[in-house]
Design the sequence.
């Protein structure tokens, strides 16, 4: 779960540098941005072109690059990251760090940074076991530097022993746990999102205008606070965020099954626009035009997923948050809805077409709880999500 995390990745000069390319891909797949720094020796193993292409940004290579100093000096470069990762961390880089040397871009960044640093060492087994490296490692551990690996195994040089760089997925896991420091670490939260599609026949369905933007933003914000997020989404326009467990469903009944399967959770946020009714006489075959005849659809009520979870006895999440999309008497309707459904909070919004909220980027919500009614100013859905996630974190203690 690395959405919006920024990693400064220093690639040292070792054969394991090729694994750093895969590491960049895996970090970006999880939503992180990567600023790569290549040492002179690193350039002997991987090219700035491959590193830059995979990272999607230019590679930093030179301490005395005046252009880059004008755009972003090395001090800022070292401090704008959430985490500095050195992979591979060579014996030379470890030695410089332990001794406080700063004679190239990588070592200068490592001395100038005030963000946490994680090293993935890679070197020949004799070098790893050398008294100097053992000393340097102990010093770095004492300085608060994190380590992942090295692993034991066959080495590129033909020897066997500890010194192989940790695999990219192991480094990703170490990065995730190094960054997991939010108030929701250890908390599991369910978010439903998007519309549902209720089939009429195999090709037609009844839907609604929900884009899934608010639900996706809430999942992102909760994950950014460290929560393990289960994201149950109908067919939304907005893609699900990276770094959350995604369960894709179509109909309300499928959503209900996915929600039940996700329990137990500490908190559940029901942002989905669930269809209240499904077509009772949905056809297994495509409906054909018949002369003079019009199809007649019969409806059946869908299960109320929110009410089901809010009113469950044992295993009820500590906090159940519902949404209310209203066009009239927002506060009165939403207040009644909170009591009817049995949820702790209702986040109500006015979805009248003139508000532009449904399918738009902004939202103006009213938070209704047993503490009363709070009207929030109109703001970006992402900001509503951030503030709601912070409130959820506070409520869960
Ligand atoms: N919801 C749900 N399952 C349903 C219908 C709604 O979980 N079958 C959830 C939504 O995700 C939302 C809340 O209930 O959090 C409010 O949904 P809404 O459709 O506004 O409420 P209704 O009870 O359908 O009330 P009405 O349509 O009368 O406004």
Sequence:
């Amino acid at each position: 779960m690395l959405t919006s995390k920024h990693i400064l990745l220093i690639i040292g000069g070792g054969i394991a540098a090729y694994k750093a390319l895969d590491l960049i891909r895996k970090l970006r797949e999880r939503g992180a941005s990567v600023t790569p720094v290549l040492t002179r020796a690193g350039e002997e193993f991987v090219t700035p072109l491959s590193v830059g292409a995979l990272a999607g940004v230019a590679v930093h290579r030179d301490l005395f690059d005046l252009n880059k100093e004008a755009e972003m000096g090395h001090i800022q470069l070292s401090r704008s990251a959430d985490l500095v990762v050195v992979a591979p961390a060579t014996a030379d880089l470890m030695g410089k760090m332990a001794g406080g040397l700063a004679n190239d871009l990588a070592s200068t960044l490592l001395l100038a940074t005030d963000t946490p640093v994680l090293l993935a060492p890679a070197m020949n087994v004799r070098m790893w076991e050398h008294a100097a490296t053992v000393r340097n490692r102990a010093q770095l551990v004492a300085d608060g530097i994190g380590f992942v690996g090295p692993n034991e195994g066959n080495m590129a040089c033909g020897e066997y022993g500890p010194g192989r760089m940790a695999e990219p997925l192991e480094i990703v896991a170490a990065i995730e746990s190094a960054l997991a420091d939010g108030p929701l670490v250890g908390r599991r939260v369910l978010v439903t999102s998007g519309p549902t599609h209720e089939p009429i026949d195999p090709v037609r369905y009844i839907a609604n205008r929900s884009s899934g933007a608010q639900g996706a933003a809430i999942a992102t914000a909760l994950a950014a606070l460290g929560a393990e997020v289960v994201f149950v989404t109908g067919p939304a326009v907005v893609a699900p965020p990276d770094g959350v467990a995604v369960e894709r469903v179509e109909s309300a009944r499928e959503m209900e099954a996915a929600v039940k399967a996700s329990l137990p959770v500490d908190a559940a946020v029901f942002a989905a626009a669930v269809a209240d009714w499904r077509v009772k006489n949905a056809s297994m075959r495509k409906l054909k035009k018949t002369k003079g005849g019009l199809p007649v659809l019969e409806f059946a009520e869908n299960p109320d997923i929110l009410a089901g979870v809010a009113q469950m006895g044992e295993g009820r999440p500590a906090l159940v948050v519902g949404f209310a999309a209203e066009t009239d008497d927002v506060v009165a309707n939403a207040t009644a809805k909170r009591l009817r459904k049995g949820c702790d909070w209702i986040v109500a919004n006015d979805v009248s077409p003139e508000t532009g909220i449904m399918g738009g980027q902004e939202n103006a919500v009213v938070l209704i709880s047993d503490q009363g009614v709070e009207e929030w100013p109109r703001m970006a859905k992402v900001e509503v999500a951030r503030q709601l996630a912070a409130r959820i974190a506070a409520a869960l203690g």
User: Anything to note?
Assistant: The first strand starts at residue 6 and ends at 11.
